[in-house]
Amino acid sequence: MLNTLDALDRRIVNQMRLNARITNSALAREVGLSESACLRRLKLLERSRVIRGYTAIISGGDPDEGTVAIVQVELERQSEEYLARFEAAMRKHSEIRAWYLLTGAGDYLLRLEVAGMEDYANFHRDVLSRLPGVTRITSSFAMRSHRKA
């Protein structure tokens, strides 16, 4: 969808990626529009779901406080019904912070945040292995992380 945007809309989206809390006045200056034109474009980007929402990324504090697991999941089938059931079940668990439907080997890549390895073992046993249609789970754990602003 981003390739259908004009240059001004792409500049707005790029600025919002850098700082979603930017004021409309500052955003308008950055992209070279009047405040009213900038706000109008921003609202259109939201209504058309190019911008689907805003979020706060909460720090886990001390890096030793939590565990980030990257989990690859294979499903029995990739029919629309299976994908919808699987995604609906994932939405119920706040530990699953993000997921991606993949091409190639594996069907989904999940990013989980849990307190530690014991919590991950429990989550794997009680949740992941019981998600609808799951046939294989492969887990990796982050040793270091960095998020671009």
- For the secondary structure, the number of strands is 4
State mean pLDDT (0 to 100 scale).
Answer: 88
State the shape.
elongated
Helical coverage, percent range: 25-40%
Largest sheet: 4 strands, antiparallel
Unreliable runs? none
Beta-strand portion reads 15-25%
What oligomeric state do these chains adopt?
single chain
SSE string, helices as H and strands as E: HHHEHEEHE
CATH level-3 fold name of the largest domain: Alpha-Beta Plaits
Q: What structural keywords apply?
A:
single chain, 149 residues, alpha+beta, Arc Repressor Mutant, subunit A, Alpha-Beta Plaits, 2 domains, four-stranded antiparallel sheet, 5 helices, 36% helix
What does this protein look like?
The chain has about 150 residues and is an alpha+beta fold. It has 2 domains: about 1-45, Arc Repressor Mutant, subunit A (Orthogonal Bundle); about 65-140, Alpha-Beta Plaits (2-Layer Sandwich). It is about 35% helix and about 20% strand. A hairpin with a 6-residue loop joins strand 2 and strand 3 (about 110-115). The longest helix has 13 residues, at about 35-45. The radius of gyration is 19 Å and the shape is elongated. It starts with 6 loop residues before the first helix and ends in an 8-residue tail after the last strand.
